[in-house]
From TrEMBL:
Name of a matching Pfam family: Type_ISP_C
Alphabetized InterPro entries for the sequence: N4_N6_ade-DNA_methylase, SAM-dependent_MTases_sf, Type_ISP_LLaBIII_C
Name this polypeptide is given: site-specific DNA-methyltransferase (adenine-specific)
Biological processes annotated in GO: methylation
Length: 893
């Protein structure tokens, strides 16, 4: 969600109030007030060190945090009805841990409402939108520390979504688990119609929100349970208020569990629940207190089992954090998530997966709870990536094994992939490859319901013996309001979603109509089978330090690391403007420590080693080679097993991806002859580029073997491809490269290319194979810039690309309002290779730099290469079309 001006103003006005409360707390502690010291000690026990202010002493940081909670509580506490406020807060103080008891006591005493600061605050708070008020903590965190909010993945759930999801859980408990009271059901295990194989006692329905935030799901659940209890009491002739009070003490509080990492959110949640209970008539008689634990649910029961009932949990619901670089790295949950790396004898082969994102860990936690119980319902809001992402294929199979019935509500809104709604006119779809990104994004309405870049889904997973397996899916498009309204309507009507039939190695949870229909194509081998030596591209993790436009710039930068006159702090400020993680100083990571690296480089210099030996050319972007400091201490993932076949060798690397971007042109193919960096085609959360070398070189021996399977070589030999006349493996790669470049291939198999590596198809007839091989060779030469630059007149000296440039106008590439760089067609200017438009990207990356004559020559060569690329692809397309299209030309007879 965007931080509004009202929220920013409120965040600013809260600070002096917080500081005043903190000063009073410090004074009370110095005067020996035991209650304050107990509150601070209690707060320290539930606060992760990473969530304390780093510029303060630990004691001052804790005092500031407790003061923040007190001020937030005062702001959150509603305009209460006098007859219950004192009793409610007294009960909260008596039944809560000391830090929360202190907050309740402060509210009970009342704060200085006539204070000028509080009056100003009240006016500012009145400007907050009604739907935002329950989520002030999340919104204020975004205003105070957006980086920390993102670091922890804190985003609130719209009330409408939480209410509708809870309603759906209530329906599923009644209809599929045969618990007629739904969430309010009090059936015990020993009388449950589905049996009690594990010998449990107590009620079947026990509810957990493992990342409860400010309580949206718990509040919705309590409201739904209240509705059921009152309806049943009225039907039985009981006094509704008496029935409700009895139910809260005997059934509600003992069956709920909420776990939340942030004390601030726990306090807000506690106040909201107390307010709701009071407004429904609760007399606050239970000695149990609210079932809120301030901790990380992912630490597991072995470390702190307070959230884990002795009896199993059967309803898991909530909106867990969306942090992709998870800070929850405890051994317990890490071991559980490893179960997604294998299933039914198959193991996940990828070195890098997205299985350690926070939401995946919470999904695994929920599954573990239901496995322990033997039945139950999980209802979570998460990223929708796990529905189709290839690295989740074993996780999908395992989840479907645990949960026979799965219901998917995909709210889409994936801005990272530029996801489009399906209502694209056919005419627009056909020209999609040539459309600028900004235009495509305007073609359909597909808002994200959280305002995030990642697509969102709500998922309902059910387990019970005897449930017939079924995976159903709903897709919601449009504005946030349209999506939520459609979801609410679907829940109210109970209409079934589209029945899916997940199958195959990927086991995608996708609509059958979206799957590739070309059976012959699906039978062709994957690129990974044809070129078995492969690896993902090199990741430096610090491009800004180890990559430069020129060798001189790079060595100057490395020289700064070696220079003893520069302090670590000075270099951090100069070279690492933004810390990657709050856990480390700027520039440092778990495996990279600036001071240690500097010392190691100095030691090499003292030994007489010339650091220039580590400078290598690298393929950074299409048509954009740069200089790389290839030193093991500065490259996080060098992919050494593959790069040894490239460094100091003559080799070609075919670049592709396991997954491309749904709704976008399937144009993620390239070729290089140097160390190749991740992001050469696009940097996103669907995995990095994969590299496929043409040759494999024996270690220490001047010999090489081809990296193309014997099966494909034999097929091509029968077509006359190979042998000395055509260059053996090089000819095979040329034919493959031409095929991958064809519009018929990219458009005809786009659905498959969005989700798996390309498959290698071979022409039926020798004449087409030979023609494509020739064109493929030409295309490789063009992409490796082995053609002469066209003759041209330079644009002169002092040429600099200005902000918001380059632009294209009337056949000219403008680098400023006054000056042009070159001439080209719009088609060349907008042509994309992967996510990059090279004619734009090359200049954009050099904004503010004076372009030398050499730069201008290279840019002209780049434009010529793009123009020639379009010509060769047109020839490839004509050759395939002349044989009746791609199926007639390639499908086996």
């Amino acid at each position: 969600m965007r931080t509004t001006a009202a929220i920013r103003r409120l965040a600013s006005e809260l600070l002096p109030l917080r500081d005043g409360v903190a000063q009073a707390l410090s004074q009370a502690s110095l005067q020996g007030e035991i209650a304050v010291d107990e509150a601070l000690a209690s707060l320290a026990s539930v606060t992760p060190a990473a969530d304390l202010a780093t510029d303060l002493r630990a004691s001052d940081a804790l005092t500031e945090k407790l003061a923040t909670i007190v001020v937030l509580a005062r702001l959150q506490w509603p305009a209460v009805v006098p007859h219950y406020v004192d009793r409610a807060l007294a009960w909260l103080a008596e039944t809560s841990p000391p830090w929360l008891a202190h907050v309740a006591s402060q509210l009970r005493r009342g704060l200085a409402r006539d204070d000028a600061n509080w009056q100003l605050l009240a006016r500012s708070a009145a400007m907050i939108a009604e739907h935002e008020r329950p989520h002030l903590w999340e919104l204020l965190l975004a205003a105070w520390s957006p980086a920390h909010r993102k670091f922890r993945g804190v985003f609130f759930t719209p009330e409408r979504l939480a209410t509708a999801m809870v309603e759906r859980v209530d329906q599923l408990l009644r209809d599929e688990l045969e618990l007629p009271g739904g969430l309010a059901d009090t059936t015990c295990w020993n009388t449950y119609s589905q049996g009690n194989p594990h010998g449990f006692t107590g009620p079947v329905v026990r509810i957990l929100d493992p990342a409860a935030g400010s309580g949206a799901f718990l509040l919705a659940a309590i409201a739904r349970i209240h509705k059921s209890v009152i309806a049943e009491a009225e039907a039985c002739g009981r006094a509704p208020l008496e029935a409700w009070n009895d139910y809260i003490d005997r059934h509600l509080l003992p069956r709920l569990a909420a776990v939340e990492l942030f004390p601030e959110a726990s306090a807000v949640m506690a106040l909201r629940i107390v307010d709701l209970l009071a407004r429904t008539g609760y007399r606050f008689t239970s000695p149990v207190g609210l079932p809120i634990v301030t901790a990380s649910a992912l630490e597991g029961p072995a470390d702190d089992g307070r959230w884990l009932h002795a009896e199993p949990l059967t309803v898991i619901l909530g909106n867990p954090p969306f942090a992709s670089l998870s800070q929850n790295r405890g051994e317990w949950i890490t071991q559980r998530v490893r179960d997604y790396l294998k299933f039914d004898g198959e193991r996940l082969g990828e070195r890098k997966t997205w299985l350690h994102d926070d939401y995946v860990k919470f999904l695994r936690l929920a599954e573990w709870c239901i496995e322990r119980a033997g039945l139950g319902v999980v209802a979570l809001v998460t990223s929708h990536s796990w529905l189709e992402n290839t690295t989740f294929r074993l996780a999908r199979r395992r989840l479907h094994h645990t949960f026979p019935r799965i219901e998917i509500a995909d709210f889409h809104g994936n801005r990272k992939s530029g996801e489009l709604a399906p209502q694209l006119p056919e005419k627009i779809s056909k020209t999609l490859e040539k459309q600028p990104i900004s235009l495509r994004e305007q073609m359909a309405s597909n808002e994200n319901i959280f305002g995030l870049d990642a697509g969102i889904g709500a998922f309902f997973l059910r387990s019970r013996a005897g449930l017939a397996p079924a995976v159903r899916r709903f897709d919601y498009w449009g504005t946030v309001d349209e999506k939520l309204a459609a979801f609410e309507q679907q829940v109210e009507r109970g209409t079934p979603g589209e029945l899916l039939h997940p199958a195959g190695s990927d086991y995608p949870f996708r609509s059958p109509k979206d799957l590739v229909s070309n059976a012959w194509y699906r039978q062709a081998p994957l690129l990974t089978e044809v070129m078995p030596l492969t690896s993902t591209a090199v990741v430096t993790a610090r491009d800004g330090l180890v990559i430069a436009f020129t060798e001189e710039e790079l060595l100057t930068r490395i020289g700064m690391l070696v220079d003893e006159r520069a302090s670590d702090d000075e270099l951090r400020t100069l070279l690492f403007a933004r810390p990657r993680s709050p856990r480390y100083p700027a520039g440092d990571t778990r495996s990279f420590k600036l001071a240690a690296v500097r010392a190691a480089l100095r030691a090499e210099v003292e030994q007489g080693i010339d650091l220039a030996r580590y400078v290598r050319r690298c393929a950074y972007r299409p048509f954009d080679s740069r200089y790389l400091f290839w030193h093991p201490l500065l490259i996080d993932w060098p992919r050494g097993e593959l790069m040894r076949h490239v460094i100091d060798q003559t080799n070609w690397l075919l670049v592709s991806r396991r997954q491309m971007l749904p709704g976008r042109a399937a144009n993620f193919f390239w070729i290089t002859d140097a160390i190749t960096l991740d992001g050469i085609l696009r940097s996103d959360n669907r995995g990095s580029e994969s590299l496929f070398p043409l040759w494999r070189f024996a270690a220490g021996v001047p010999s090489k073997k081809g990296n193309i399977s014997s099966e494909i070589r034999e097929k091509m030999t029968r077509l006359g491809i190979g042998g000395s006349e055509h260059g053996d493996e090089a000819a095979c790669l040329a034919l493959l490269y031409a095929t991958l470049a064809s519009s018929a291939y990219r458009q005809g198999f786009a659905e498959s290319l969005w989700r798996e590596f390309p498959r290698v198809i071979v022409p039926r007839e020798a004449d087409l194979a030979l023609e494509l091989t020739t064109l493929g060779r030409q295309l490789i030469d063009v992409h490796l810039l082995r053609h002469a630059a066209p003759e041209f007149t330079t644009a002169g000296e002092g040429l600099v690309t200005q902000p918001r440039y380059p632009k294209w106008s009337a056949g000219q590439v403008l680098v400023s309002a006054e000056r042009s760089m070159a001439c080209c067609s719009r088609e060349v200017f907008e042509y994309r290779i992967g996510a990059h438009a090279p004619a734009q990207k090359w200049l954009a990356d050099r904004r503010g730099r004076t372009l030398t004559r050499s730069d201008q020559v290279h840019y002209q060569q780049l434009l010529g290469a793009l123009e020639r690329t379009l010509e060769i692809i047109a020839q490839i397309d004509r050759a395939i079309a002349a044989r009746g299209g791609i199926e007639r030309a390639f499908a086996p007879e």
